[in-house]
Amino acid sequence: MLFTILAWFMAFWSAINLLDYFLRSLHIPVYMAFVERYELIVTLFQIRFVPIRSPCTILKTFAQNNSLSCLLTIWFTIGIISAISCLFGVTLYLSRSTVIEISSWWSEYFHSFASDVIYQVEPATFRKEFVKEDDGLKFIIPGWNIPWTQAPLYIGVLLVAVVIHEMGHMLAALSINVPVTSMGFILLAIYFGAYVEIDAVAMRRLSSVQKLRISCAGIWHNLVLALFAWMVHESTSFIVSPLYMSDAGVYIENLQKDSPISGPVGLQKGNVIQAINDCDVSNINDWNRCLKTIKYTNSGFCVPDDIIAENMADEMRLVGNELDCCHNSTWGNSASHMCFYVRDWMHTIRMF
Length: 352
Hints:
It is a single chain. Strand 11 (341-343) and strand 12 form a beta hairpin. The longest helix is centred in the N-terminal third of the chain and has 48 residues, at 66-113. The protein has 3 domains: 2-44, no CATH class; 60-239, no CATH class; 250-351, no CATH class. It has helices spanning 2-25, 29-38, 57-63, 66-113, 117-133, 151-175, 200-204, 208-239, 284-295, 305-310; strands at 41-43, 46-52, 180-188, 191-198, 250-251, 272-273, 275-276, 279-280, 317-319, 322-324, 341-343, 349-351. Helix content is 53%, strand content 13%. Helix 3 packs across helix 6 (151-175) and helix 6 packs across helix 8.
């Protein structure tokens, strides 16, 4: 898998560089006009272009409005406090994670050589705590720990976060009359980013607090974006509640192919389960509770011995994680039947 990903990665960048080389060599008018207009630069593992030469008039007017100047100053001052707090918070979090990682590694190393029972119990407990608590920071790698089908979603989210980040820098600079020359985008290997070019001479004339307002504005706007996204996520169920029913059962979205619980008398896509063996099901919590109740409760159906003997299955197989005993039965259409456990009190458990 890793070799395949690397091969596709090298093939993509090789094709991009070759295409850029030939188009420039042939002086294709459309491509050359695009290169000059957007300052396109293509190098090894890097694409850079500048779609925005200068901020739009509306953004300039908003940032330099005298009535909003005080509000923007307060806004970006809060950004300084938030960014510095995050700096110390992230440093403490990463330091703690590093200590836990080193301690876990040392405990595993020491555990392998320890002979005392006391030392054999404590590291195992510590490792469990480490696994349980290490959920805050995770790497997202398409094809490795997330499916490729979700890659466009993550790329879109990254694009929005990058644009909001750079817009923060731009707005902070314009609010104190610092010229912004351009805003560009860059694709570096697999990372998509953006940047804002601010007049260096004007930056040197600013005070330390003003420089901090510009530098921290990107992080501050990303924090606000994350807070907004969290609020939308938490309120989604309330916003769309008029369009859907809630707490009315568990909806079957899909079934495994050839599942033994499907068929005319089984479950079908679109069914809503409202009860399991007289256990009411309103939501996923009820579903899990009912399944646990069934698991630890003896239940069954009384069936005459002659019917059991007539319909006893000779062969069984696993379909997914489900046991199927109807695929090789004597019935004409096994899809109309379902499998049940039968307990013969004189023998072992069988299926029919």
